[in-house]
Amino acid sequence: MAGGGFDDKSRGARAHLYEYKITSYFVCSCIVAAIGGSLFGYDLGISGGVTSMDDFLKIFFPEVYRRKQEHLKETDYCKYDNQILTLFTSSLYFAALISAFGASHITRKKGRKASILCGAVSFFVGAVLNAAAKNITMLIIGRCLLGFGIGFSNQAVPLYLSEMAPAKIRGAVNQLFQLSTCLGVLIANFVNYGTAKIHPWGWRLSLGIATIPAMFMFIGGLFLPETPNSLVEQGKLEQARQVLEKVRGTTRVDAEFADLVDASNAARAIKHPFRNLLSRKNRPQLVIGALAIPAFQQLSGMNSILFYSPVIFQSLGFGSGAALYSSAITGGALVVAALISMTFVDKFGRRAFFLEAGVEMICVMVAVAITLALKFGQGVILPKGIGIFLVIIICIFVLAYGRSWGPLGWLVPSEIFPLETRSAGQSMVVCVNMIFTSLIAQCFLVSLCHLKYGVFLLFAGFIIIMTCFIYFLLPETKQVPIEEIYLLWEKHWFWKRYCSSEENGIELKNGDKV
């Protein structure tokens, strides 16, 4: 039995029987689905740029605009410290975490495709409202609709890619989501760079362009096949086999299809997937996939840099245009990092990228903190050389994050949950991720104001904890079939006490074990 079951140990021997070819049908399906990442990425990139535009601030945040013009009279760290301004950014992520639970039900009952389409529609409507906003209320409502769209797409797309991908290239395929996210960030930075010169409505264009990836996602989504895993889960076995044969490019899919059916049988025995996620045998998936990794991904401090990189660079003494341009450089570094990770993650594994990048990120955060402590003060414009140094080391940080916690923060959770708790587990991933994303978004600027350079030391401390967690508690998952990941927990030095067949039976609908 797959995933949470432990009564069929022989099933682990089927993996070598899996066959596949890379078909155009498979490639096109994954590329279309991965567009969902661009929704998340475009918003990450666009928000910070818009909130640094004077035309936007004059209309919605005149107090912040006034403070920005009087920066010599106060600490530069505090120029953008305004809770309503940060609510503009974080409201989207509060909405996304709420929508993730609705997305779980739709993803499990109606399929991954249905959630992708729902996300595209909601994001489109939200983008239209934001572009046409006349007041704060309209702006926040639009942001919430964008959040609903991101909640649905972030819940469904990583699952879709992991389930469609053959085990040997699952890491690279799943990271199409991260690559799409990074491209969204990069495009948003260049859009901001251009629209900042269009007065007084350039910010409306920046927000309105978000409708374009939403349209692509919806139109492409109409033609997407459902994943074989989801079709089996819905009882559509014949259709599931047809899709599996088509995406694998061969009719010899008996072993993989048998594993999907076994996994589906286990899933049907689970009446309450969220409750089952809390059971002892699912403890490693709960702790690692649903709680730790999505929280740590945000505690790295990376999204703070993406949210507010134009604001940060302006606070560090760069001009408005130079700040947006510097942000575009970091966006480009993120794309390069995603390509590096896609190329090598299935060769070197998840743990190697987590660990070596973690060391780099710690060093960079400490270097940023020391530089700001020595060279940055009240009303002081940073020397050009120091400014260039900060941009370079921030790019190094982005490269490290972009090949580790960025893509792997979505890849690892999407591949470790058994089918019976997969949609519920991914909803927890999105929910926890968005909780910490919204908290970081809401708290970063006020923390920058009060902690000053110490906020970067705080992130360095978090990264040390994250890296130790990965070293001791995450087994390597590269090239392991998704329905056989559970075997890793039985062999792990720590998790085997929760997942051994002697400790756990098969949980039935009434909660009994056999």
From TrEMBL:
It comes from Solanum stoloniferum. GO terms for molecular function: symporter activity. Residues 29-478 form the Major facilitator superfamily (MFS) profile domain. It comes from the Eukaryota. Pfam families: Sugar_tr. This is Major facilitator superfamily (MFS) profile domain-containing protein. InterPro entries: MFS_dom (IPR020846), MFS_STP/MST-like_plant (IPR044778), MFS_sugar_transport-like (IPR005828), MFS_trans_sf (IPR036259), STP/PLT_plant (IPR045262), Sugar/inositol_transpt (IPR003663), Sugar_transporter_CS (IPR005829). Belongs to the major facilitator superfamily. Sugar transporter (TC 2.A.1.1) family.
